[in-house]
Model the fold of this input.
Amino acid sequence: MRVKVENLRGDWDKETLDPKDWEEFSSLGHQMLDDMITFLRNIRTHPFNHPTEAAINEIFLPIKDEGVGARETYNHFKKYILPYTGLVVKPQFWGFVLGTGSPYGMLTRMLIAGVNYFDEGFLSSKYVYKQALSWVKELLDFPEKTSGVFVGSGSEANFTGIAVARNAKAQVDMKTKGMQGVERYMTLYCSEETHDCLDRSVELLGLGNEALRWIPTDEESRIDIEALRKAIKEDRAKGYHPFCVIGNAGTVHTGAFDDFNKLADLAEKEDLWLHIDGAFGAWVKLSETHRHLADGMERADSLAVDFHKWMNMPYTCACTLVKNRLAHYSTFVYGHDAEYLKSVIALVDDQLENRGMLSLPLSRPAYSVLTYMLLKAYGKNKYRRLVQKNIDQINYLAELIEEEPRFEVTAPVTSNIVCFRYRPNGLSEPELEKLNRLILGDMWQINLGMISDTTVKGKYTLRVCNVNHRTVKQDFKWLVEEMKKSGDKHITQFQ
Ligand SMILES: Cc1ncc(COP(=O)(O)O)c(C=O)c1O
Done:
């Protein structure tokens, strides 16, 4: 329905999200910046607190017809939100694989938000995108002509790689027929240490999670190549279509690396797509002592990697590299004419580099600008030293744990993760699990998620994953003491 102009209400020219008073806005902006810098500067002593009931009540209020304004909203943030945050930026945080961010990363995000950058691929961002991608390929030893796309997370980066693998290997026109057109059951393979996001990708791509074969691992937590070979053979004998093998560059449980040269040889022989999940671990390439773990990674058909974990860029930012440019493009390019985009698509010189056609989202934040600025600001050597420091620190922590008679390291320390448990003599496996869960609970009282847990080869275990650039040696000494105190306190229940 058309609206008559004279019926419109309000003063259009004054209705905007820009501030009425730029001076006041500038003073608020400076205050916000100063406050956040102070917050990060003092993060070591920032207390861990659960939100109080009063804070929760303040958060759960109905939306108002008239907003309370920028300053009052910021005061609200400072009072009721900020004090109950900050877990992962603390020097004593090693849970899951959560990156620590950086003060400069925070500022970079502000610049990107300022121009509401959406990775548009025009003007300066076109060149920045190309250069950032080129640096990433260089750091990971991928050929310059490799296709690549910046995406939102490790999960999305893996999804993107597996989607290309499926379409490239399906032997049917996936765009038009989809999985409905597949004649032979498609199967794919990964080690039992693989991150669950790959399972989810397989489900979302219509392959069904039964098609993903979880292959056992050897003592080093690497995929067992013989077991893999056997599984492929059995599937072929059933008339199935094995199409992809997923390797791990740093498993989320133990930080293990598969033998990529062996995997690549097998994939070539069996005509399988080799996808590698290097979400955090691919950056081991930057380490002086451990880069060999990634040998052969550059032979993958696709690689998922992210920047918000070991590279400590602010959440979120990741990337998928795909060797076959056409296969990458053909998977995500619209299967029909996108009428309203035709003219703008025509502006892109090389369609195979049109990032809007290389992963699911069309609009996205300028991940490439973020990556570009942080790689430029810090340079290769800073990241090399940080990756190396985290690996060295984990080996130091493993030594401290091994020196404690009541603790044991439960998995080989390959890269930046150590798995261990408090293990006094005479307790059964279920009792050990119960006891170590209590220790985890105590650690989470100090800082929620400070360390995490998992199960490795059927054994419940505690886990420290170190991508933290703020941790110092003393923090690990302190951690071992705290865990010892906790274990010694709880052991009395079991004796
Ligand atoms: C090995 C591995 N792959 C994939 C992911 C998923 O990444 P994201 O959390 O960025 O989606 C993770 C997250 O911890 C991971 O460790």
User: Anything to note?
Assistant: The chain has a mean pLDDT of 96.
